[in-house]
Amino acid sequence: MKTQNALHESKNLPIYQHKATLQQAVKDNSFLVVTGETGSGKTTQLPQYLHQNIKLTRKLYTLYYSLRIGITQPRRVAAITVAQRVSQEMHCSLGREVGYQVRFDDCTTQDTVVKYMTDGCLLREILADPVLSQYSVVILDEAHERSLNTDILLGLLKQTLSSPDKASKGRSVPLKVVVMSATLETDKLSVFLGGCPVFTIPGRTFPVTSKFSCAIGPKDTESSVYVKEVVKVALDVHTSEMAGDILVFLTGQSEIEKACDMLYEKAESIDYRYDVQDHKVEGLLILPLYGSMPTDQQKQIFQPPPPGIRKCVVATNIAATSLTINGVKYIVDSGFVKQLNHNSRVGMDILEVVPISKSEALQRAGRAGRTSAGKCFRIYSPAFWEKCMPEYTVPEIQRTSLTAVILTLKCLGVHDCSEKPVRGKVTRLGELMVEFPLPPGLTRALLQAASLGCEDLLLPVAAMLSVENIFIRPGHPEKQKEADKKHRQLGVQAGSCNDFTMLLSVFEKCKASDAPSAWCKDNYIHWRALKSAFSVETQLREILLRLQKKRDFPMEKFNGNKSELFRRCLCTGYFTNVARRSVGKVFCTMDGHGSMVHIHPSSTLFDQEAQLDWVIFHDLLVTSRIYIRTVCPIRYDWVKDLLPKLHEVDVYELSSVAREEVTDEEVAKWVTKEAAKRQTGGSAEDV
Ligand code: ADP
Ligand code: MG
Fold it and tell me: Where is the Helicase ATP-binding domain (predicted)?
């Protein structure tokens, strides 16, 4: 019944009328750009049309038939969710004819002909097979998002297809590339791809009225402030607006969970006899939606709510273009998004919460006008719009570190990766590194450990850092205290003097437990996340074993104790992420940028700063301050030769202040002075 409905629905999508034309256009062109409003059916339908086309003409095109159709997505959740939906529409179980592949999760078989995947996965496939000989068609979806990997894929595929010799080498039939985009800025794309045709799916949208509010001004960037406001507005909409679902935009998992908790609590006290404007509305169904959510929970998002119930989805930006939720009539826009940015002040990529761009705000609002007129409630003021929001979102390629991508490109023999050709050959180590789907620093540390025969220390850590946050911190204050206490106990039990050993210890303890899921529950640990970590560890171990079988895998010797061994391996990968305590609880990064950072409260080392001197850290988080997360104390000796710029930092000046006992007031003064010093030399990114 459900699938019948799905089929019926898919015939109502705007793309359906253009099925034959699209099938023909892909046949006729090497490159094709397809554009259309979000929700018009591009992602779910076009791959099916192409598959059917190939099936029908399989007598003529037997070769095509044995090949796959690959569709890339910038986000893993989108790849998984859409694959699920399409497998339903095609009446097959997921992983058979229709499957997906995302990092550390391959749900495909030999039978898979329609394969949804992240753009990162396709890039890895190109590394092993530059002409993508398994595919008849490759669809790069969500090109308007300008994700780093999609941009790189566009460049690579253009290069491959433009030299016929290269393109046909190792292929039986020519590859077709379709680029799909939700915005109309497709001319640029077409020009980039040699003037290829652009197919526009006509569609109609309904007007959406947008209202600003005065709640959030240019200075209110605290998460707790806008989360509260968003909750208030969503409840107002629920009580005072006519029936229709609500879509709330926030930035990430913890915020979304907090908001949902607050909504549950407040919604309970609504008296539907008196408080609600539309008497047909008799209840509120609150659903979170974020990247690392279990997929069975995600399914609920798409189901229509029971009669009389209003659905309220609290989502990250994933609901802006990647996933379309039917029935949404009201948008509550926080105005913020979490974004990976290369921060020139700190000299590193940082996951930051930043104001969205104006074009993004329009896109978010548009989600309310798919099937009828809608309303968008912006919780920010017109001044915020004017002063804080840029016109467009800067493409990822212009704002994040290119280290991993350049290594990949160079391994593919592409040396003119940017306007400036990149000199230098890839070393043996680089060739080994590129095999791992991990950030370069972590890979380097892992390989160092392997060469010293202690990969068992690093493999679990690498796995734990590759899954969602494993520590649960409930919203309720009492529970929060209890969780914090349990986590502290875990740290003490582990004898762990740092956050990396903490991760290792949690991994090992849980693995050794007879009842791992109960153990997790008891210790406020995400069982689901740990289960993924177990699987990731196995996969990383397989890659490593394969590489170790090679003749020239490097081996070294180490004389020292285990704790030192572990931390020194970390140093080889994290030598760019070094900080030294300067004054009070303030640390100063030591890569030449000298930013002031604090240890994040989630760290086992939080509140023990006084005993620390030099540390390394896994990543940075910027809120009102810059925090370092997953921290480990080290010795200066271990990094001094690894980072040339370390010597340029005026260690003397810092250390003279650091060793004295100072009052909080003095610290504050010193910090302000330092900040002012740096502001003058800062860049636009400091904002
Ligand atoms: P586009 O790619 O053009 O934005 P999609 O193909 O993603 O459009 O969506 C087309 C329709 O399919 C939308 O109405 C959307 O709600 C529906 N849809 C997509 N995924 C699912 C799903 N997992 N469950 C139910 N409906 C879905
Ligand atoms: Mg889409």
Answer: 23-202
